[in-house]
Specification:
heterodimer, A: mainly alpha, two-stranded antiparallel ribbon, 2 strands, B: Thrombin, subunit H, 3 domains, six-stranded antiparallel beta sheet, globular
Chain lengths: 165, 289
């Protein structure tokens, strides 16, 4: 019953993550700085939902490390947050998959909120807390944009036949 | 036979191992500089992303500048010529003042003020997390940039380099909460430490006793102590002084002058540290001769 990922599958996952990294460092005007959704976390959550047997905490850990290097945060910070979120998704994927899309958006909002909370706490421990309530807006924008991310990646997955059962 | 359920114990164990690993990494990264080298090596793989988002923006900039009218360019050229002329006349004055200053300093036998080499670097249009107060520039170890190097712009001190790779470097701004810079009040020579607050363009002076003479509007320059930042560059202006009855020290906020979120050009400085022996040894030999 476990689907096996094809090479095309792995390639698509890597490409979608590359796109997420690009969106993460893409410059935004200053007013939109805090609105940037957690693209990488959303992409990771999608692939965990799609292939929880193959893509789970280990993927999240390495993607998180890379995100730390890219965004200049302390090494291990995003890795920790992503591992915890990926674990939560692994535990609930059977339910979340069946949710209607709006309810799924709400769940993603909660997942990203947990992710942001972990980063907020770590930043607090090292004394560099984000001095702005707008920090929390990222989870709102992530939740709002989830349907598009979901349909886009799902179409890719279905059309290209990324996995063999 | 495989079930539709995940092998849960295995997943939990792996998650816990990875969490512990992440915490250890964070601890090492925060407490020691052991990871600086690793970080620099790894940021080589981050550079392609940084350049990939920068090139389209560079291209648009190039388009807009290449379609500027001849008239506008001509006008800009005129104003720049006038500016160069006025600045040059000012510079001749400063040269005379500089010589005088050196003589005075030798008289007082204090450290000499030596101008080091500088290099122009350009910002890469690549965003970092907004709460870490970092910028990415297009100069790296290939151009001689090093960790701890001071970065300036036309208005004042911007920050210091905290991570280098071959062609890019990350700058930690002076407004970051984990950055401190030794400063001196221009008006009365008072020395202090300005620490970033984490808010945009804002620093604070720490551990200033309540009796200290310090006022709103005082300008702060780098004092050059500790040798990391060169002497005499503008850091900020005091914007607020507050005496809270419950606090042991005065609460002083400083507005950064460098206007860090404007402009694309920055200067990397190589502060040439004044050799201590130069100013000390002559006086000693003078004593015994």
């Amino acid at each position: 019953m476990t689907p096996r990922l094809t090479i095309k599958g792995y390639l698509t996952i890597i490409l979608s993550l590359v796109a997420a990294f690009l969106l993460t460092v893409m410059p935004l005007p200053i007013w939109a700085q805090w609105l940037r959704p957690a693209w990488v976390a959303m992409t990771v959550i999608y692939w965990v939902l799609a292939f929880p047997e193959k893509m789970n905490v280990t993927l999240a850990f390495f993607v998180g490390l890379y995100l730390d290097i890219l965004t200049g945060t302390m090494i291990g910070e995003h890795a920790l947050a992503l591992v915890i979120v990926a674990y939560l998704v692994c535990k609930t994927y059977q339910r979340v998959r069946l949710f209607p899309i709006l309810q799924q958006s709400l769940t993603i909002f909660l997942f990203i909120l947990v992710y942001q909370l972990i980063i907020f706490v770590i930043q607090g421990i090292i004394g560099q807390i984000p001095h702005n309530f707008l920090y929390w807006l990222a989870s709102v924008t992530s939740g709002l944009l989830w349907p598009w991310v979901y349909f886009l990646l799902r179409d890719l997955r279905q059309r290209w036949g990324l996995a063999k059962v | 036979m495989k079930t539709i359920f995940l092998n849960r114990t295995f997943l939990g164990v792996r998650a816990i191992i990875l969490i512990v690993l992440a915490v250890i990494l964070m601890f090492v990264d925060h407490r020691s500089s052991a990871l600086v080298q690793v970080n620099s090596t790894l940021s080589v793989v981050a550079a392609p992303f940084e350049y990939a988002v920068d090139y389209p923006i560079k291209f648009v900039n190039w388009l807009t500048t290449s379609f500027v009218s001849r008239e506008a360019l001509f006008q800009e050229n005129q104003t720049l010529k006038i500016k160069v002329l006025t600045l040059q006349t000012k510079l001749t004055q400063f040269q005379a003042l500089g010589v005088e200053d050196q003589q005075l300093k030798t008289l007082m036998q204090s450290a000499k003020y030596i101008y080091g080499k500088v290099l122009v670097a350009e910002l890469i249009a690549s965003d970092t997390a907004p709460y870490v107060h970092q910028l990415v520039i297009n100069k790296g170890t290939q151009s001689g940039a090093y960790v701890g190097q001071p970065v300036l712009n036309a208005r004042g001190v911007v920050g210091q380099i905290i991570q280098t790779s071959k062609n890019t470097s990350h700058i930690l701004l002076i407004t970051a909460a984990n950055n401190a810079i030794p400063v001196e009040d221009v008006r009365n020579g008072l020395r202090a430490i300005a620490v970033g607050t984490g808010a945009v363009g804002q620093l604070k002076l720490v551990q200033i006793p309540k009796t200290t003479d310090i006022r709103v509007g005082d300008e702060l320059f780098t004092s050059g102590l500790a040798g990391r930042y060169p002497i005499g560059y503008s850091v900020g202006v005091i914007s607020n002084v507050q005496d809270l009855p419950g606090e042991a020290f005065t609460t002083i906020t400083v507005k950064s002058t460098a206007a860090i979120n404007r402009g694309r050009l920055l200067l990397l400085a190589w502060p040439s540290k004044p050799p201590i022996s130069v100013s000390v040894i002559p006086s000693i030999t003078g004593l015994f001769s």
